[in-house]
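Handout, section B. The chain below has 149 residues.
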Amino acid sequence: MTHAVATEDSLTGALDRLVDRVHGAEFAVVLSPDGLPLGGSRQVGAKLAEQISGIVAGLLALGLAATRTCDGGGLRQIVVQMSRAFLFVATIRNGTILTVRIAGDDAEVGDMAYEVALFVGQAERHLPVRLEPASSVQSGDAGVHQRLR
């Protein structure tokens, strides 16, 4: 179960500020550990949030497989570089997932990488706290949010 410690408006505001700070940033979405959209910047509608959720699920599966195969520690970030855009996917300690799209020839990719890292470090101010599901505690499986660390 997920309990919000911040209102949806404060999360939307935090995501809007993240997008506004970096030239070329188009949108930001936060997903729960199980892939449900928790909030998005002002450019994000329900359809886009659902699409991003599906994309991120696939990317996380590949990222987690890579961490197991390469024994490189926990998954922190995935960056997808396209011909005209970048998609940043970053895991947050409480299990939530930040996704940001930046586009344009003059987009500031380094600035976005910095802002994503900064947001992840300060995420507890804006994001719900992920409580351990009872089924995970009983089975000894820490759940996906533990594997994302």
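Note. The CA atoms of residues 33 and 144 lie 7 Å apart. Compare this with the example in section A.
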